[in-house]
Amino acid sequence: MMQLIRITDSDDAFLKRLISLYEESFPLEERRPVEQLKRLIKSADSMHFNAVVLDGELCGLFVFWDFETFYYLEHFAIYPHLRNKKIGQQVLDYVARNLSGLRLLEVEPAIDDEIAIRRVEYYRRNGYKVLEKEYIQPSYHKREDACPLWIMGNENSDFLPQYIERIKDEVYRRNISE
Fold first, then answer.
1. What CA–CA distances, in Å, run from 120 to 41, 125, 129?
2. For the chain, what is the radius of gyration of the CA atoms?
């Protein structure tokens, strides 16, 4: 049985094991510094850093933000040796069942990169569609460049510009400066 176990303590044993997956799975410009991550795990109530556990085995991580009117799915990674075993699918099925309403996520543009194209198609098969192609992800680092990405979501929203601004403010700008 697949479980998402929320981590709220920066000394959590799962977190210690997941840090390397986090750093290996996301390039520097698409992840926050580990100390900032640990601070948010303890202090940001809307952030849910989850260990993905299947039949008692730690399989990966899934981070989302609950903004009450929508969810922002920030990071999702499965350990390489466990990929292609439908664990990610189980997580997305859980999300569809338990996070009702609008869910937004960022992806690399599916233009000429085979992995990015496959990732976008994976999310499409799971009910997501590209909602915004002109999105610039703010940097997780004060000195790094912003990153052009696409926004995908499970449904359209007239409030998408406001939701994107809230993500930028609360996930990036406010939490980087603290």
1. 28, 9, 8
2. 15
| DSSP states of 16-36 | HHHHHHHHHHS-GGGS--HHH
Q: What is the per-residue pLDDT for 161? A: 97
Please provide the size of the chain in residues. 178
Q: Give the pTM.
A: 0.94
| pLDDT, tens digit, 9 for 90 and up, residues 77-136 | 999 999 999 999 999 999 999 999 999 999 999 998 999 999 999 999 999 999 999 999
Cβ atoms of residues 64 and 71 within 8 Å: yes
Per-residue pLDDT at 144: 64
| Residues in contact with 160: Cβ distance below 8 Å, sequence separation at least 6, in sequence order | 131, 132, 151, 153
CATH assignment of 2-177, among 3.40.30.10, 2.60.40.10, 3.40.50.720, 3.40.630.30: 3.40.630.30
In angstroms, the CA 46 to CA 51 distance is 16
